Amino acid sequence: MKKILVTGGLGFIGSHTVVALQNAKFDVVIIDNLSNTTIDVLDNITSITGIKPEYHNIDLRNKKDVQQFFETKKVDGIIHFAAYKAVGESVEKPLDYYENNIGSLIYLLQEMNQRGLDNFIFSSSCTVYGQADELPITENAPIKPAESPYGNTKQIGEEIINESCNAYGLNAIALRYFNPIGGHDSVKIGELPLGVPQNLIPFITQTAAGIRKELSVFGDDYPTTDGTAVRDYIHVVDLAKAHIAALQRLINKKNNKNFEYFNVGTGTGSSVLEVITAFEKVSGKKLNYKIVGRRAGDITAAYADTTIANKELQWKTEKSLEEALDSAWKWQLKH
Ligand code: WQD
């Protein structure tokens, strides 16, 4: 049984990927410092699959602790989620973002190189494209100057990985996520935003649950069908499966180059108002919202061209926007 290290494995996307890995008969080891999640996610994963993953509470910014971990652990692959990911917060605390997101990446890659480990999957983001000139967005779209330190850590992260693959012969894949939403069918794991949600879907579900008074729609003067911004919302369970596909590509040595990257989305764009309408349909709730000004740093539209990911990863999304919103609502109702 192949052993896979999942950093940030108790987080939103990480926990769904751990479940998918265990379902695909991988032996999972999790590293998570609980900075953006809670330890009960470990039991929730176990209750879904019946297998308790090995777990280590390690802060990947601590080089000695990372070295010590690998002294006793030999893994067949690493899926690296552990990072800070709040766009707005990254503008206020850039050094925290560079120290955590870049530092932890460097220490992991150093250990892989020094110990002959291979097969690295990196959690990247469509944010590297900024506002793409053409839609849907292909992997050939130019990388635009980052709009935030968070986005910059993803761009720099990809460059570090690319150069490390070239220099040390590592094999890696970056998955450029569009907008991950929803939760597991079991309603045992989902998105756990701590504090006021930054992202649209948790804010919608908390408004529908009466936790928030009303949703502010950030702008309806964009050049889109209804004036609100367009994104590609992908069910987190489909996103998790893309990681298994990417990992198997590397383990089976099917990759064409040392470093590859793929756009992971549904290929369909949905506006904020379309998401609200879909949510009202699946929840049966009338959503309380008002239109306000645009949010700084937001782009008009982003949705993926999934041709290459579908072909090279032999993977495509299976769940609809409605299914994703329904799973997000069921998760909210449980909490
Ligand atoms: C979606 C749309 C908002 C909240 C960011 C990161 C990306 C990834 C996902 C980490 C936008 C609108 C939102 C609200 C609103 N993060 N909105 N009212 O900004 O597309 O992507 O999160 O990996 O890297 O950039 O996602 O959910 O914040 O916003 O109108 O209260 O919803 O303007 O159009 P975003 P989001």
Summarize the structure.
With 335 residues, the protein is α/β, with parallel strands linked by helices. The chain has 11 helices and 13 strands. The relative contact order is 0.15.
Question: Could you give the topology of this structure?
Answer:
Blueprint: E1 3-7, H1 12-23, E2 27-31, H2 40-49, E3 54-56, H3 63-72, E4 77-80, H4 87-92, H5 94-115, E5 120-125, H6 149-168, E6 172-177, E7 179-181, H7 200-208, E8 215-218, E9 230-231, E10 233-235, H8 236-251, E11 259-264, E12 270-271, H9 272-283, E13 289-292, H10 307-313, H11 321-334
Parallel strand pairs: 1-2, 1-4, 2-3, 4-5, 5-6, 6-11, 7-10, 8-13
Antiparallel strand pairs: 9-12
Bound molecules: UDP-4-deoxy-4-formamido-beta-L-arabinopyranose.
Q: What is the makeup of the main sheet?
A: 7 strands, parallel
Biggest sheet, spatial arrangement of strands = 3-2-1-4-5-6-11
Bound molecules: UDP-4-deoxy-4-formamido-beta-L-arabinopyranose
CATH overall fold name of the domain at 3-182 and 234-265: Rossmann fold
Summarize the structure in words.
With 335 residues, the chain is of the alpha/beta class. It has a domain at 3-182 and 234-265: NAD(P)-binding Rossmann-like Domain (Rossmann fold, 3-Layer(aba) Sandwich), CATH 3.40.50. It has helices at residues 12-23, 40-49, 63-72, 87-92, 94-115, 149-168, 200-208, 236-251, 272-283, 307-313, 321-334; strands at 3-7, 27-31, 54-56, 77-80, 120-125, 172-177, 179-181, 215-218, 230-231, 233-235, 259-264, 270-271, 289-292. The strands form 4 sheets. Strands 3-2-1-4-5-6-11 form a 7-stranded parallel β-sheet, sandwiched between helices. It is globular. The mean pLDDT is 97. The site of UDP-4-deoxy-4-formamido-beta-L-arabinopyranose has 19 residues, from helix 7 and strand 8.
